[in-house]
Amino acid sequence: MSFKERIVNNKFSLVVSLPSNSLELAKAALEGGAMAVKVHCNVWHRASGHTFGSYAENREFLKELIALCGDVPVGLVPGGEDAFITPEERLELEEMGLGFFSAYTHHLPCHMMESNVLTKMAAIDYTYNQNTLDAVRRSQIDVLECSVQPGENYGTNLNYADILRYSDIVEKSGKPCLIPTQRKIKPCEVKHLYEAGCKAVMIGAVVMGKEPGAEEVKAATAAFREAVDAL
Length: 231
What we know:
The protein is of the alpha/beta class. It has helices at 3-9, 23-32, 55-69, 87-96, 130-138, 160-173, 190-195, 205-208, 214-229, and strands spanning 13-17, 36-40, 74-77, 100-104, 119-124, 143-146, 177-180, 200-203. Strands 1-2-3-4-5-6-7-8 form an eight-stranded parallel β-barrel, surrounded by five helices. The chain starts with a helix and ends with a helix.
């Protein structure tokens, strides 16, 4: 089952975005109940403060990660503002067994949308508007990542205005919507995301910490998985 099929068919899903490219942390996330795992290359990550190496530097890690995760889909942020994988590297990732990619639309090369293998998870930021959502509805995007919090909101508490905003995006975009923990979302707030029509939450450095150990990753993942299973 593809990542897209899981997101669509599951009542609600839990994705873990690892703060660093570590097999130990990936194993901890799996033990905690992660339903998908996401990592990065070619980017600086605001929430964790980490710089991730190139695709070439992460190639062997990615192979080992995909093998470790087995049936649990693995996703990759394949680049950002300064660098991105090539079409040839995308094809290599498809053959490797990668499940999905995730990237901001304003960083995303058009060739990534040509994949017939990878689930296309594209992110909009706080500059989106109604025209953006109209275009998303008509697009080939499979899953919409709602990274709509400006930088000054990172790590602050979720509020009901956020829930209303997410609900509006769900309705107007017509896509399965995933909410990343830009705000410091609590496990007990997962039910509000679900009631807003969202299909997944993706936890990362904001809730796990910038330098978490395996136990912290496992504990955070388990707490969110318990909340997801309780829906």
